[in-house]
Amino acid sequence: MTNSWQDSARQKREAILAAIPAEWRLKDLPSVEEQRDVTGDYIRGFLTEREVEITETDAEKIVGKTTTGEWKAEEVTRAFCHRSALAHQLLHCLHEIFYDAAIASARSLDSYYAEHGKPIGPLHGLPVSLKDQFHVRDVETTMGYVGWISTFEGKKGTGKEKVFESEMVKELRILGAVLYCKTSVPHTLMSGETTNNIIGYTLNPKNRNLTAGGSSGGEGALIGLRGSPVGFGTDIGGSIRIPAAFNGLYGIRPSTGRLPYEGMANSMDGQNTILSVVGPLGTTVGSLRLVIRAILSQKPWLHDPLVHDIPWRDSHEQQITSLIDSTDSSKGGKLCFGVMRTDGIVHPSPPILRAIDEVVEALRSQGHEIFEWNPPSHQAILDEAFKTWEFDAGSDIKSAFALSGEPMHPQVAGFSELEKHYKASEIATVNVRLRELKKVYMEYWNSTAKFTKTGRCVDAVIGPAAPWPAARPEKYSYYGYSTWVNALDYTSVVVPVTEVKRDVDVVDANYVPLGERDRKSHESYDPEIYDGAHVSVQLVGRRLEEEKMLAIAEYVGKVVGK
Amino acid sequence: MTNSWQDSARQKREAILAAIPAEWRLKDLPSVEEQRDVTGDYIRGFLTEREVEITETDAEKIVGKTTTGEWKAEEVTRAFCHRSALAHQLLHCLHEIFYDAAIASARSLDSYYAEHGKPIGPLHGLPVSLKDQFHVRDVETTMGYVGWISTFEGKKGTGKEKVFESEMVKELRILGAVLYCKTSVPHTLMSGETTNNIIGYTLNPKNRNLTAGGSSGGEGALIGLRGSPVGFGTDIGGSIRIPAAFNGLYGIRPSTGRLPYEGMANSMDGQNTILSVVGPLGTTVGSLRLVIRAILSQKPWLHDPLVHDIPWRDSHEQQITSLIDSTDSSKGGKLCFGVMRTDGIVHPSPPILRAIDEVVEALRSQGHEIFEWNPPSHQAILDEAFKTWEFDAGSDIKSAFALSGEPMHPQVAGFSELEKHYKASEIATVNVRLRELKKVYMEYWNSTAKFTKTGRCVDAVIGPAAPWPAARPEKYSYYGYSTWVNALDYTSVVVPVTEVKRDVDVVDANYVPLGERDRKSHESYDPEIYDGAHVSVQLVGRRLEEEKMLAIAEYVGKVVGK
After folding, report:
1. Which of A255, A309, A545 to mutate to test the interface with B (most CBs of B within 10 A)?
2. Is residue A215 annotated as part of the catalytic site, yes or no?
3. B161 and B63 together in one domain
4. What is the pLDDT of residue A257?
5. CA-wise closest residue to B463 among B363, B318, B333, B337
6. Where does the Amidase domain start and stop, copy by copy (chains A, B) (predicted)?
7. Pair (A254, A338) in one structural domain
């Protein structure tokens, strides 16, 4: 009577496609070889001029028009629905499609505006995509698990199926956002590549040889192809920043306790040594700021017990803009950036190093200070951080696979081999050690005030988000550049910088790897395969510095011309 | 060659006494029967008029004089040293005495003032006592463990012995505070009575039949006898509020992440489901506000990785004062208090119920609203919270006792019987459950806005901090009234209300206990034994509402005449 996991997966996969109106279906899908890059003119070819105009407008400008009645929510919504439908067919980036509900919701927003002459909230008529960890009424949350189909987080008969909504979903609705799709994730969420047995492998729109990243890979692919103006992902080891970086987007990993995670599905829920956080990805910093400010205006600390009562702080942004505008660079009235070109464990690939250099040069030319970042051991931090992923010996993940009998993809198969189940005193040791490492790093950061010309501490650290511009399938082998940030609970924003140029970003034939892990990483980069891919950097700030880091990221984006 | 634990304990006990100057030693110590209450005129009999004046001035007024040069730091320090020395002899409340260092530090503050004509900081010349979890250079931290004598947290040769200082100690020095003693704790810290094999049992100065409370019991006894104007304790299940309540003091349990715990000794360090927090006890709310504001002025979030970047918020206080001053009580422009007379598990004793009624009547007479608090199950919250104390099967505590072979006192002997060591997935289950319970409680609190006349949520909940005004030795049997606050991470302030009156606070002969636990609690109360003891209530606010709750506590103290 019960379906095989293959049947269940296929039915779900077909149901997702079936939610796409016939007129938006692509008849002939090009192969990767035929069409490596599906962004730009390629995707525009399937859209009207008006749809292109709408979908290539950033979130901030969209609400500038939808909250003033210049654009109708329905038209905006339809345009993004159309483009997201194309994205899914070309990239496999959606888990749930609910265009009808979205259009109904857009219409009711338009009615509200017509009746009251004002928007319902600051996100009135803005389509927002959500990673498939958010619970949205009337649709499922599978998180890529076949065994979660027709359940609530793997359980049947909870009464929450297709009814329960995550806290942030409720807030987005109040703010006037239009929800229309949920985006793909790797099963387990614990991978920098997005693949699962339901929708397959999520491709990178700029270069379909490569992954869109993970675990918020569907968000990365979708927004990368402008099928969404802004969306929310989550990040426990890089899962917002990796897809942002791989798709030429801005993405922020806020510190824990800034945005509400309440009521979302998760992997290994209850592991509270390093918490997953939720945060936006978008095409501009303004988009990220818009949605964060909007969410904070809802006082999420009254609805999520883990959110701190910290409203949006304009003054933190203003401090940065006045430093930027300062003409007093001789006395150090400007910004000061640390630069970390390598963590000494795995060296970044040539395009990443070039991107860092371009950022450094652009900032230096504007009179900002650059400081060589020589931090305490990242290896020591990572050693503790990676333990947290294994605390429960993979039991939560194994049980999710056991529901259907589906196999684990190679990217996460390590979980099936875990045997050691940490006990309380071992977890306590990790907690103490991580706190000590945070303190040491914090005092290193404090100490920079003694060496900078500004006399202030380094404002942000420029470094890689990953060793490569993106990863080739089954080659995402190193999480160190993103995970140290989670371990220290720092605020971090990814900034797009450039694209891979096959003739410039060549491989050093004489390169001597630092070890086996570095060798694997080194060998996975190939200028031919990577040509045209987005290249991004990560800007890391201290804990709970979201306003400051967005202001810095916006400025860095400007000086590098993005 | 190694001492027996008895010898080590005796030597340490004698060394503490030996640090008291001969002229401050009491020759004849009165028995409890001879002198139940050692506060007031009794203790004053050993002091000069000037010493009484100084030591009966609250912290806020002290710094009003020491920061303006009206009082010399040295004279203030000497007065509190003297009174604290008397307190220790009568109550056994100190673990470390360093009067010489304190006087030297006070002199250097006086020199600074003489030279610069201004104070070194907002706490210039204020003596501050510290629970024996703070590391202070030149003295030990035993935390009541014989095995910790001559070690750093039980370890030898760390290089930190008598050198390392806790973060807050450094900040207090910068602010101009004078450190002069460390106060007693129960071994393990996990008890509402303070007793250990080094200094014995810490008595309640107002009624020496009773405990001074725990685990910050030394702080409670010392400040209760005015041997300190303000001091810092810690609280994981009630350890600030219990001694504050038992000694007629104000004490605040801030939410986690508000004040720096960095670099302090602890029990079961690394258990991060429910974190211990640090907070002040003092004779007035002004004292607590003074030291919290001062600490926050040091931006502790730059030196403690677990502290949030939340400066002192004047506006939160002002909102309360304007509500209090509002004359618009008909429309609900006043405050609204929930009142919880019982948690339905253990009923409070008669004097606690009378204190709650007195508070309720006083507030009602001022036009404030009183709301019957019918919260979600406290039993469910406590079930999860108490598990956290047992996660490691007592292994951390057992190993501390094993260092010397000393026995556990009956109040904490339960730890020796623990066998179940929680594993990661079991801890995760507790974490998820606690988060769910927090959410449910949060939404109950939110829902009160629908029922109050103010149309706002309840501002604070009035309830017991413990079932009794204090506990008789070995009879502290129930932590539910304090620990629910830790489990939910709420802000809570204890407010003194009245004293036990043997003729008023009589036992109901027809009382039917709710169960065995309630029976034990009920039988431990005896009006004769308790006569004269302080009676306090607890005011509970939501998470990170320190400014608001201090303002409310100050007002409540005023209306009940304390």
Report:
1. A309
2. yes
3. yes
4. 98
5. B337
6. 75-550
7. no
